[in-house]
Amino acid sequence: MGSFWERVKVGGADMKVYLSVPDGKGPFPAVVVIQHQGGVDEFIEEMTERVTSAGYVGAAPDLYHRDGPDCRDDGPTRRARLLDVNVIDDVNATVGFLKGHHAVDGERLGIVGFCMGGRVAYLMAAAHPSFKVAADYYGGNIMVPWGQGPAPFERTGEIHCPLIGLFGEEDGNPSPADMRKLDAELTRRGKVHEFHSYPGANHAFMNRRGQRYHAQADRDSWPKTLAFFEKHLGKVAVGAR
Fold it and tell me: What's the rounded mean pLDDT across residues 180-185?
């Protein structure tokens, strides 16, 4: 496995993308990994590498790149500046980069996101037709737009790929009621999906560096996510999972 930073053009400016590529000849299916509120930090780098250990090229775009390299604002402040229109542009640019990469099978693309990234994964399952599968890890504020335009929830009818959702029963955003609302709307719209909820788990249960890490939820949810991806993207090279 090789992991390194690349630069992708978005609207004439550079956006950093953390890229992780499996060993071997390829081409490999690829998964876009969407950051949590903390940005593309050690947790997101780790999750990108875990994606690659399962046989995928992993790519995590820095959605905070418009803040500039010297920004010292905290995560909540930076997240509050994000607009859906810009996020869509950033993910679209990442998809374009992956489709042009020699190691990537551009017909086999998925997306996974954590926290705010789960919300983005839900949004992009509607906004970009190239994704064949999406995973939403405890994505909050799915019913709320960032800037102008519809909220991700309002675009549920546009979702074009199977979606898996992973939630903590102790989470307040998304709450269990939010999860049920999403489940009902996806079902009403006839969208292929499966949801899993973990007793005792709170928000951010996948972050091994955080206080709310929940090992059992991690151990159960990640294999389920990889199985869901393999079901809808096809077989991948054997890797450590």
Answer: 98
The pTM (predicted TM-score) of the whole model is: 0.97
96-150 tens-digit pLDDT:
999 999 999 999 999 999 999 999 999 999 999 999 999 999 999 999 999 999 9
Question: Long-range contacts: 195-199, Cβ < 8 Å, 24+?
Answer: 195/164, 195/165, 195/166, 195/167, 196/164, 196/165, 196/166, 196/167, 196/220, 196/221, 196/224, 197/167, 197/168, 197/169, 198/166, 198/167, 198/168, 198/169, 199/169
**Residue 40 CA from chain centroid, whole number:** 12
Pseudo-torsion of CA 206, 211, 212, 216, nearest 10°? Answer: 60
User: What does the block give as tokens for 17?
Assistant: 């993308």
What residue type is assigned to position 142 of the chain?
Answer: I
